[in-house]
Amino acid sequence: MKHWTKAAILAAISASALTFGCQSAATPEACSAICAQTAQAEVVTEAEADTKEAESMAADTQAAGAKVGVKSRSEIDDVYKWKKDRFFATRDDFLKALADAEANVAKVGQCGAFKDAATLKTCLDNYFVQHTSINKLTLYSNMTVDTEPTPDHQMDQKNAAAVMAKFMEYAKNIRTELLKLDNATLDKYFAADADLKKHEAYIRNIVRRANRVLSDDAERVLTLAGDNLWAEIDLNEINSNSEDVFDAMLSSMDLPIIKDEAGKDVQLTLSNYSKYRRSADRNVRKAAVDGLMMTLKKYEDVLANAYIGQIKNDVLFAKARKYDTALEAYLDKDNIPVALYHNLISTVGNNLAPLHRYVSLRKKTLGLDSVHLYDMYIPLTNEGGADKSYTYQEAVDLITTALAPLGEDYIKRLKTELDPATGSIDLLPHADKTSGAYSCSVYGYSPFVLMNYQESLGDVSTLAHELGHSLHSIYAMESQPPGSYHYTMFLAEIASTTNESILNDYLYKNAQSDAEKINLLVEKLENIRGTIYRQTLFAEFEYLAHTAIEKGESINAEWLSKLYGDLIKKYYGAEYSMDGADDNEWAYIPHFYYKYYVFLLNLSLFLLLYEKHFLILLYLLS
Q1: Which of 33, 107, 350, 386 has a Cα at 20 to 30 A from 157?
Q2: Distance separating alpha carbons of residues 617 and 614, to the nearest angstrom
Q3: pTM here?
C-alpha cells in the first residue's frame, strides 16, 4: 500500500478540510441560516454513528453451535460484566416485581379530577414513582436480552414492554384531566403549591399539544394500534411489530465465515463487523463488507416490508392526530420546527464538494485505483500509532487524565463509574451480545453502559462518549425531578461529544510526532464526514421514503435500494465506487425505525464550534 510523506499528507488534509462547514456554504445566507437554527441541537461522531447504527440490534445468533473465533459470555471474566443487582438480585425477583407491577398498573389512572394543586401534585408524584418502577423492569429486561438473548429473557422483555404499554394507556386519564384545566387555573395551582412546580415542564408539554388529543373512542383505537406520539418512554425503547420483524431478521441472518489477517477462519457477526471493516488487510475488510451486504441482499424483501410497515405506521399516527406529515408529528413531540429539518438537507446538499474532495484525498493517499465502502474506515497512514492498542486500564487512565479540566467532582464520579468493581459497564464483546455501545438509566439509579471494547483508539473515544451520557444523567438526576431530568434527544449528545472533543484535544496536544497529529486530524475529518454528511444522507433517505408513502406511492426493496444508492453517489461523488450490494446498507440500520431520530444526531452549534477549532488546528499545522 502506497503512503505519502508526513508533510504531503498534512498539506493534503489541510487543503481538503479547510473547505468543510459554513465556510463552504453556497451563500452567506445559507451559512447564517444553519448556524442560527442549530443552537440547541445534537452532534454525534462517526464512531458514535457506527455504534448508533448497531444500538438496539438483536444479537447475531445462529441456529446451533458456538461461533468460530468468538468467545461465549461464560468465557468473559465476571468483573467485566455489569451488575444488574442494583435493580433485581435474581430473575425470580424481576418476575415478582413484574407481576406486582401488572397487578397495580391501573392505579395510575385513578387520580380523578384535579380540583386543587395538592390533588394534582399527589397524582403526579405517584405517577412518577410507578413509572420509575416499571421503567426498571423494561430496562432490566432490555439489558438482559442485549447480553443473553435466550427465549426466556426475550419473553421477559415482551412482558415488561406489555406492562409499560398498559401503564401508558391508563396514564391517558391524567392527560385528559390536565387538559380540562386552563392556563389561568394552572398558574393559580403553581402559585399555591411551590412543590408542584417540579412537574411544570411535564404539564406544560402536555397542554401545549392539546389540539392533538382526540375523542375517547379514537384514542382507544390508536392505543390498540400502537400509537406512540404520547408515549411515556423514549420512542426508541418501544418496538413496533415492524421493528420486531426487523430485529428477528437480523438475529436470524447467517453471516459468512471469513478469513482474518492471519488467514484463520472467523465468524462474521454484527458485533465484530466494524472491527473487520477497518482491517489494514484490504481482502479482510472487503470480505467483511461483502459478507454483510450480500446477506442483506438475500433478505432485502423481508427487511423492506418491515421498514415500509414502520413508515405506514408513522404516517397513520400522524394523520390521525391531524398533522400534515409524519415529520411534523414526530418533531413536534420535542417542539422542533420542521424548517430545521429541511434546512439541514438543503444546506448540506448544496455543499457536497468538500466530501468529494475528501474521497479523492483517501484515494490518492492510500494509493487506490478506486475507493469503496470498505476503504472508508481505515487510517490514512500506518505511522504514528494508528494501530496502537489500549488495555482497559490504559483507557481509564487516559480518559480520566484528559477530562481533568471538568473538575475534581466530575473525575471522582467518572472513576467510580469506570471501576469494574462498580459493575456499571458490560465491557467486552462475545457471541450473542448486541453490537455497538450505549448508556442507559432509570431515575434514582446509577447508569449502565454497554460496550464492545476491542482496544482501539476509537473504542477509547466511544468509552469517553458513553460515560459523558452517564455523568450527564447522574448530574441531571441530582438536579431535576423525574418529570424533567430526562434530557431530550435534541440535547443528549452535547455532554458525550464534549468528552470526545476534550479527549481528542488532549491527545493532539500531547502527540509526539507529526504522524500522530495526522492520525488525530484524520479522525476529526471522519467525524465531520460521519455527522454533517452521513447522518444528513440518512435523514434525506428517511424523509423521501416517508414522503413517497404520504403521496400514496408504492415502494418496495428495489425502490429503497435505488434511493439509497442514488444518495450515496450524490453525497460521495464520482471517485467513490459502489459494489453490487452496497445499496442494501439501509436495511440493517435500526435508527430508521426510531421515527425521524437520525437527523437529531447531526445538528448542533457545538458541532460548528468543534469544527472551527479543528480548522484552527489545521491552520497552525500548515
Answers
A1: 107
A2: 5
A3: 0.80
Residues 6+ apart with CB under 8 A from 282: 1, 374, 375
Tell me the three cell numbers of residue 15. 487543503
Q: Using CB atoms within 10 A of its CB, is residue 191 exposed (0-12), middle (13-18) or buried (19+)?
A: exposed
Per residue in 91-122, pLDDT (tens digit) is 999 999 999 999 999 999 888 899 999 999 99
For residues 617, 377, 372 and 255, what is the CA-based torsion angle, rounded to 10 degrees? -170
What one-character-per-residue DSSP string does 227-245 give? Answer: --TT-SS-GGG---HHHHH
Q: Which of 300, 466, 550, 611 is catalytic?
A: 466
Cell of 250: 437480523
CA-to-CA dists, residue 403 to 301, 325, 462, 474, 501, angstroms: 47, 43, 14, 17, 10
pLDDT tops 60 at residue 67? yes
520-547 average pLDDT score: 89
Active-site residue flag, 478: no
- Give pLDDT, residue 47: 39
Rounded to the nearest integer, the mean pLDDT of the chain is 84
Task: Tell how strand 425-426 and strand 448-450 pair up.
Answer: parallel
- Give CA–CA dist 338/324, Å, rounded: 11
CA distance 220 to 410: 46
Is 186 in contact with 203 (CB distance < 8 Å)?
yes
Q: Which grid cell sits at 11?
A: 498539506
Alpha helices in 299-373 (DSSP H): 300-320, 326-332, 338-349, 353-366
Tell me the angle at which helices 493-509 and 457-479 cross, rounded to the nearest 10 degrees.
140
Question: Using the 8-state DSSP alphabet, how is residue 576 labeled?
Answer: B
- Ordered DSSP codes for 337-354: -HHHHHHHHHHHHT--HH
Rounded Cα gap, residues 58 and 76, in angstroms: 20
What grid cell was written down for 547? 414522503
